[in-house]
Amino acid sequence: MIEQRKLRVATVSLAGCFGCHMSFLDIDEHLFELLERIEFDRSPLTDIKHCGPCDIGLVEGGVCNAENVHVLREFRANCRTLVALGACAINGGLPAQRNHLDIGACLDEVYRSRPGLARAQVPNDPELPLLLDKVHPIHEVVRVDYFLPGCPPSGEAIWKFLSDLVNGRTPRVTGPLLHFD
Asked: What is the DSSP string of 124-151?
């Protein structure tokens, strides 16, 4: 019997809350079934910081700074199939609530206008990533192959989606598996 090659799967988190990764871990015992067919590259399970060539990449979070742009483009370049996972990746989510604000005024309010912050200044260290004027969904920066909505998508939805994808089927997540609360 010929052993089938395991698919390489990587994940990355950009501007978000890490809830989608937590939901991914909520697939519980299905994770063991999944590990029969996949191996992880970059993910919180491996602590690998840079993505190598992968079959499937899962991205959670929107794009809010120059580092997010760089990480996302590098990730896309290494993933044959890219999945926008959750509301932040799909439409900017909660981080995009700042999009109607002037970023300079927002930073001044946070760092300079609070009581007790005499002579405070907005951080301006070259080590800090440059903020973008707006938070962008990932499809505005790179090509996305699939979108899995939710805030966050449930572990069951992620399991169903990945099971379809790993088994060569077009992912179909509908009905009670989709929720937005």
From this structure: --TTSPPEEEEEE-GGGTS--SEEE-SS
